[in-house]
């Protein structure tokens, strides 16, 4: 059971309060129609899946309800940091 | 011949005898005994039959490492259908109580005479990879022949068939320091941690603290003092009979405390076990070490056991394992055990040690104790089948063979530090040549290991071997490595010869270490043997990964209170009680309990649904639609937001009007739908499917918070705030008219797909004029607290019109007659709007909406996509099975080409025949074609209809 720091609530809370939201910092294209099929496929499906530092989204579903970003090490599962949605990649 | 109780000694209470039975025979032990010590004390050396070969087996160890002596303990039935039989308990871990009833396992007809033992004679037929190699073909034989046979012959105890009457507690705990393991190292760690004043929890799996010190008289004084010191500390919680089974992220440890299994059933009160979820600042692992068996021909004969087990029996339980006992050692600890047993009164006759060079003080002490010594020798075979009658040994295993008449043989093969929990927490390990084992190296968590488990305990020195040297080649021996899974040294050697290189492959091919004991006694020996066969250092072969649980745990403990009514919440609408009072048959939809139909008299579902359907078509019906998901969307940008979320245009929708919305995922597939109403320029009342409510809200929040945070919109779930009563049928207006105030119900003032706010039965309502039946219909939304009152009022007012309450089954039939889809039943996450025949719902002129770009990907318009169509069986009384597969050619040999499957299928009383919907490749182009639905024993023919609308295609019944 991970402990996750919600950057909005500013509290460490147990994993069961959160829902994972996939890789972070993948912005929806402003004009999807302008994208080639290949670029759109890349946006929809292609993810980095790194070994090590992973930027990912979480939502404090059973808390404040906010989406935020986290840096987690995929080998150790250790959270390096969490930060609010909209803040630059860390 | 066998074990017996020593006249004095041990930590048992000889003044408190306890009677118990094993395989129906009566025995007597003492308070403080466990099942294994009490049976050995009574001369019972045979405990079970082995997994694969059904070889007779005794105990190997006296702790949780025990692989052989698995028993079923029956604590008796509390009522018919309820029982408390627990299989696969390790006899040394079963505390003795008055009336204990235990049975051996995996034998037929009896433990002493077991028919399955023929497998042992046929051993050559069961080599490594036996399952992979043998039961390949024909495939059909698996189900009927191989699997039942294997399950009967191989295997552990029988799974209970009765329900468990016990209850199981669960709790959370937080502490500064958690110490796992209550031997002297763990006790010292707890005492030291307690100095800082923080909360300390000390966990130990046995019924008293002490660990290995319990088998060392010289340490009893120190143990008593330190245990007393612990008890005096207010900040230390000691949990005995508690197993820390898993060590998870961020110092989260799961442990199960046994509360009543050590008590006679009539004395047991309260919960049987308690699951502890402990979050600790620091974890100290003091798990100790487990002795390794030696691998030689006949090392599994009952009476051959670990040296530490013989010592524990003698010192802690006052039990001699035999009259004439020999120790086969490659490690100093065997000598120390021999002397401790001798001092306790056990007839230790010889120590055989493969080493020629043993510490002089040990040799001198053993000689002084009158024990014969055979240095530089190894045991090569064991006589006896149900018990040891003698051993053969030889110089270096290969020299001149000598015989020794003994009735027990103890193995001292060195020690393996217990690093299971350390590994659960992803701590790294390092090979230690002195221990011949892996030791904790670098921790990932705030964790440290102490004592023998850390390699920081003086166990003496010794060799780390694969097999003892012997006169026979390895493939002629029955030298066991994994006792519980019946893996022999030759199986590991064979796996290597057949090409396995990594220990992970060797493990899975041979099943070494894959039994319920997870290789506690076999992993290191297996590694050493593979290392020898591969001629590679042990460290080049790798080590298998330890995973929770450390020892098997009951499902009950893990489940805790989450069973029966508490397994998952049941959501009930405010009208549920009325439905129950009126004989509704219920079904579960997502977490909701919904009325499925309302049988009258002796009606079955078919009859009830036919009556309900006809009532709605001919007069009027009422339906509890409160479970519909509802979201209030508010804010100046609400219309813009919905315009981006849904496929169809929303900005031009006038207040007071409703629209059907289709929601896609970004990949272009349908994920939800529902009718929504605009109440004001900045306010919408959305509805979602019953099962999709939470998902849709989360998806909308995601876009709103992370993609379009510039939009000023607020989303609020109102699912439970509104009760929804659908009144449907030609007489619907007449029924509600007398109850409604402030709303003009006339068709011109209140058309189909409109919403009005007013009052009904004196309470506020949002009244929708919508229909999921194809008839004139209203959905009466009222604040939930008034829902039942309004329902009853409508029901009463409807009596004059023959109003009929109906359930979800009728709702399904009525909507299917009209071809209305249910997202999640007729769609499965792979259908586009066009696939579902709903291209009309897509606003192609909109520049963007969620999923729009995906709809123009080439695959989304490619031929061959499955499309939703109607099916009419040639025999109108045949009702297809939902989920049934559809083929074009029923004569094609298996495997046939599947065109698609049936998604919805009902008997329609209105149409007097069956109707169905299906997704079929290129379905609409197959209009009029006959397809085939193969079912067991017959194939059903049906005709495709491109339209899914079976009733009132022009929609004339809606607009009245």
Automatic annotation (TrEMBL), chain A:
It comes from the Bacteria. Pfam families: SoxD. InterPro entries: SoxD (IPR006279), SoxD_sf (IPR038561). This is Sarcosine oxidase subunit delta. It comes from Novosphingobium pokkalii. The lineage of its organism: Bacteria, Pseudomonadati, Pseudomonadota, Alphaproteobacteria, Sphingomonadales.
UniProtKB/TrEMBL annotation, chain B:
The keyword NADP does not apply. It comes from the Bacteria. Pfam families: Fer2_4 (PF13510), GCV_T (PF01571), GCV_T_C (PF08669), Pyr_redox_2 (PF07992), SO_alpha_A3 (PF17806). The keyword Protein biosynthesis does not apply. Residues 176-422 form the FAD/NAD(P)-binding domain. Keywords: Oxidoreductase. Residues 578-846 form the GCVT N-terminal domain. Residues 477-558 form the SoxA A3 domain. Residues 866-952 form the Aminomethyltransferase C-terminal domain. InterPro entries: 2Fe-2S-bd_N, BFD-like_2Fe2S-bd_dom_sf, FAD/NAD-bd_sf, FAD/NAD-binding_dom, GcvT/YgfZ/DmdA, GcvT/YgfZ_C, GcvT_C, GCVT_N. Belongs to the GcvT family. This is 2Fe-2S iron-sulfur cluster-binding protein.
């Amino acid at each position: 059971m991970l402990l996750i720091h919600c950057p909005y609530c500013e509290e460490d809370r147990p994993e069961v309060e959160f829902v994972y939201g996939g890789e972070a910092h993948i912005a929806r294209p402003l004009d999807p129609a302008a994208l080639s099929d290949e670029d759109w496929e890349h946006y929809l499906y292609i993810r980095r899946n790194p070994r090590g530092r992973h930027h990912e989204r979480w939502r404090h579903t059973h808390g404040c309800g906010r989406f935020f970003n986290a840096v987690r090490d995929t080998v150790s599962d250790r959270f390096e940091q969490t930060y609010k949605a909209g803040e630059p990649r860390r | 011949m066998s074990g017996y109780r020593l006249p004095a000694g041990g930590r048992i209470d000889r003044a408190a005898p306890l009677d118990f039975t094993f395989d129906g025979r009566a025995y007597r032990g003492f308070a403080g005994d466990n099942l294994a010590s009490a049976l050995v004390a009574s001369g019972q050396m045979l405990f079970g039959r082995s997994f694969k070969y059904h070889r007779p087996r005794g105990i190997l160890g006296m702790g949780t490492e025990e692989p052989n002596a698995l028993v079923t303990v029956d604590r008796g039935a509390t009522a018919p259908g309820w029982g408390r039989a627990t299989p696969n308990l390790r006899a040394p871990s079963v505390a003795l109580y008055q009336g204990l009833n235990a049975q051996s396992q995996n034998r037929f007809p009896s433990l002493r005479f077991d028919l399955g033992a023929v497998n042992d004679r046929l051993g050559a037929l069961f080599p490594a990879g036996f399952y992979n190699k043998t039961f390949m073909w024909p495939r059909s034989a698996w189900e009927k022949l191989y699997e039942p046979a294997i399950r009967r012959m191989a295997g552990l105890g029988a799974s209970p068939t009765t329900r468990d009457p016990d209850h199981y507690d669960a709790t959370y705990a937080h502490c500064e320091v958690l110490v796992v393991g209550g031997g002297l190292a763990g006790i010292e760690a707890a005492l030291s941690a307690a100095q800082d004043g923080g909360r300390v929890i000390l966990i130990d799996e046995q019924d008293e603290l002490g660990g290995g010190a319990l088998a060392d008289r010289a340490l009893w004084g120190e143990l008593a003092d330190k245990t007393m010191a612990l008890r005096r500390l207010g900040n230390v919680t000691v949990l005995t009979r508690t197993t820390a089974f898993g060590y998870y992220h961020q110092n989260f440890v799961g442990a199960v405390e046994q509360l009543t299994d050590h008590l006679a059933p009539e004395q047991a009160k309260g919960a049987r076990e308690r699951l502890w979820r402990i979050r600790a600042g620091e974890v100290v692992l003091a798990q100790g070490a487990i002795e390794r068996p030696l691998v030689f021909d006949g090392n599994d004969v009952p009476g051959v056991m670990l040296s530490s087990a013989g010592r524990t029996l003698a010192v802690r339980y006052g039990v001699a394992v035999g009259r004439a006992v020999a120790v086969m050692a490659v490690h100093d600890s065997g000598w120390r055990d021999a002397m401790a047993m001798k001092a306790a009164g056990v007839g230790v006759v010889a120590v055989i040690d493969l080493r020629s060079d043993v510490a002089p003080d040990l040799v001198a002490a053993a000689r002084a104790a009158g024990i014969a010594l055979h240095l530089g020798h190894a045991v090569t075979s064991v006589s006896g089948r149900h018990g040891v009658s003698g051993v053969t040994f030889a110089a270096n295993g290969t020299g001149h063979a000598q015989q020794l008449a003994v009735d027990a043989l103890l193995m001292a093969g060195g020690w393996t530090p217990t690093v299971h929990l350390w590994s659960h927490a992803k701590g790294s390990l390092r090979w230690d040549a002195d221990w011949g084992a892996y030791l904790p190296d670098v921790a990932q968590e705030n964790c440290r290991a102490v004592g023998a488990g850390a390699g920081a305990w003086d166990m003496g020195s010794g060799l780390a071997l694969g097999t003892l040297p012997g006169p026979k080649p390895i493939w002629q021996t029955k030298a066991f490595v994994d006792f519980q899974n019946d893996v022999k040294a030759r199986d590991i050697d064979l796996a290597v010869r057949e090409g396995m290189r990594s220990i992970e492959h060797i493990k899975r091919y041979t099943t070494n270490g894959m039994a319920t004991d997870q290789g506690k006694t076999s992993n290191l020996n297996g590694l050493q043997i593979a290392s020898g066969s591969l001629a590679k250092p042990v460290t080049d072969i790798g080590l298998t990964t330890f995973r929770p649980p450390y020892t098997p745990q009951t499902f009950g403990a893990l489940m805790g209170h989450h069973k029966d009514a508490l397994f998952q919440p049941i959501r009930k609408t405010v009208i549920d009680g009325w439905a129950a009072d009126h004989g509704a048959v219920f079904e579960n939809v997502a977490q909701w309990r919904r009325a499925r139909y309302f049988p009258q008299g002796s009606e079955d579902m078919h009859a009830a649904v036919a009556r309900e359907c006809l009532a709605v078509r001919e007069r009027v019906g009422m339906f509890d639609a409160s479970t519909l998901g509802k979201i209030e969307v508010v804010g100046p940008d609400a219309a813009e937001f919905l315009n981006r979320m849904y496929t169809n245009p929303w900005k031009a929708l006038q207040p007071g009007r409703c629209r059907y919305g289709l929601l896609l995922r970004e990949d272009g597939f349908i994920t939800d739908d529902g009718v929504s109403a605009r109440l004001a320029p900045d306010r919408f009342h959305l509805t979602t499917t019953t099962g999709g409510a939470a998902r849709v809200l989360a998806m909308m929040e995601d876009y709103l918070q992370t993609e379009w945070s510039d939009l000023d919109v607020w989303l609020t779930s109102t699912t439970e705030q509104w009760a929804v009563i659908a009144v449907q049928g030609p007489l619907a207006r007449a029924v509600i008219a007398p109850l409604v105030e402030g709303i003009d119900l006339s068709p011109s003032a209140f058309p189909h797909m409109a919403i009005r706010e007013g009052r009904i039965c004196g309470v506020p309502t949002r009244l929708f004029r919508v229909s999921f039946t194809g008839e004139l219909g209203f959905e009466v939304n009222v604040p939930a607290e008034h829902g039942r009152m309004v329902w009853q009022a409508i029901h009463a007012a409807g009596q004059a019109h023959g109003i009929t309450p109906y359930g979800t089954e009728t709702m399904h039939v009525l909507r299917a007659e009209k071809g209305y889809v249910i997202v999640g039943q007729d769609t499965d996450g792979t259908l586009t709007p066009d696939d579902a025949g709903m291209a009309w719902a897509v606003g192609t002129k909109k520049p963007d909406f969620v999923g729009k770009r995906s709809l123009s990907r080439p695959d989304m318009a490619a031929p061959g996509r499955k499309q939703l169509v109607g099916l009419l069986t040639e025999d109108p009384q045949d009702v297809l099975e939902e989920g049934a597969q559809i083929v074009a050619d029923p004569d094609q040999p298996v495997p046939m080409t599947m065109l698609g499957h049936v998604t919805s299928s009902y008997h329609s009383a209105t149409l007097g025949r069956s109707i169905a919907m299906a997704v079929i490749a290129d379905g609409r182009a197959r209009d009029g074609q006959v397809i085939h639905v193969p079912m067991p024993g017959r194939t059903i023919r049906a005709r495709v209809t491109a339209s899914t609308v079976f009733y009132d295609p022009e929609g004339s019944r809606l607009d009245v």
